[in-house]
Amino acid sequence: MIKIEVLSDKTISEGNIHDLESDNVAWADIVNPTKDELKIIGKLVGLESSAIESLLEENSRPMINNLEKYSVIVFSTPLKEESVKPLVIFISKSTNDFITVRYGESRSINRINSWDVKRKIVMFEKGPTYILFRLMDEILATYNLVIGDIDEKLGVIEDIIYSEENHKEKKLMVEMYNLKKVLIYFQKGLSANREVIASIEKEYGEFLNKKDLSKFRLLYSEMTRLIEITSTYREILTTLLEVHLSTISNSINVTMKKLTAWAALILVPSLIASIYGMNFNYVPKASLRYGFYLALGLMLVSMLILYAYFRRQDWI
Asked: Which helix or strand (DSSP H or E) is residue 211 part of?
């Protein structure tokens, strides 16, 4: 689906593909592009549709490059389901075109679309490079939101791990591994995004407005902060995972000690009973009138002695 917005006569209206070749500032947002839509965009920017598809692949690394008329930027952006996918951006200073191509819903672009008209007009009036800055700023805001959600989930996981009733081990482990995978992808995407912003600052994009490049220094600092937070959360999650595994191991050890103690309590009486149950004519004290009760008393005393010992050792 291709959605095109054009600034004309200080108003933003819905446009068509031909508006991308005019002098008016236009933003074309292509979501889940079809083969035909990729061919249209490829013809416009001077790139094969297959090349655009390769840029949209999940393992595509963020980068900045220059075509004949456009600068192309690949930027990692978090989607609604907390996965990270590339956002391909084509920008031209000469024709005032700004084109985004993506798979999946982008919370960052959705927020920009929800802005009031006046705010969007101000953004469009400053040109495609400023639109790029605002979009990247919103992408970083989305990273912040997702990392904030991860922070809350880490708190819940920590409470479960340190609680006495930790009976959701399988579900907890799945949640922890999923969070760790998200943090790994985030750190990978953020690190590559930082290199893209550094390249923009160094004026590697031929078709960017150099007057607006100083603004990207703020994004670079924010990106560095997010990378540090992501790295910290990964370490916290790794520590929580180790603590959780240690808790499980300790719990098993305690259970085994208790089982061993209870088994030992039964072992001595069973030994006495088994001796007196053997088929021999001459068993010590077997001829006594109260030998049976003597054996029972011996079993009880042995159990009490063992119980007191294990209780003192905190095994029971």
From this structure: none
CA triple 173-176-179, angle to 5 deg: 150
C-beta of residue 31 within 8 angstroms of C-beta of residue 54: no
Q: What is the pTM of this model?
A: 0.66
CA gap 198, 205 in Å, rounded: 11
User: Which 3 state secondary structure label does DSSP give 30?
Assistant: strand
Count the neighbouring beta carbons within 10 Å of the beta carbon of residue 88. 24
Contact of 160 with 248, CB cutoff 8 Å:
no
Could you tell me which CATH class the domain 252-312 is placed in? Answer: mainly alpha
Secondary structure element (H or E) that encloses residue 98, with its range: strand 97-102
Q: In b/e form, how buried is each residue of 238-256, taking b as 16+ CB within 10 angstroms?
A: eebbeebeeeeeeeeeeee
**2-248 topology per CATH:** Beta Polymerase; domain 2 (3.30.460)
β-bridge pairing 63-66 and 26-31: unpaired
* Closest by Cα among 104, 67, 111 to 82: 104
Residues of the chain with CATH 1.20.58.340: 252-312
Q: CB–CB of 62/76 below 8 Å?
A: yes
Contact (Cβ atoms closer than 8 angstroms) between residue 64 and residue 205:
yes
Interval 83-136: pLDDT, tens: 788 889 898 867 788 889 988 888 888 888 888 888 888 888 888 888 888 888
Per the CB < 8 A criterion, the answer to whether 135 and 91 are in contact is no
In one letter, which amino acid is 208?
L
Neighbouring C-beta atoms of residue 302, cutoff 10 Å: 17
How far is CA 171 from each of CA 2, 91, 142, 196, 246, rounded to the nearest angstrom?
41, 45, 27, 38, 17
* Predicted confidence (pLDDT) per residue in 205-253, tens digit: 767 777 778 778 788 888 888 888 888 888 888 877 777 777 777 677 7
Question: According to CATH, where is 3.30.460.20 located in the chain?
Answer: 2-248
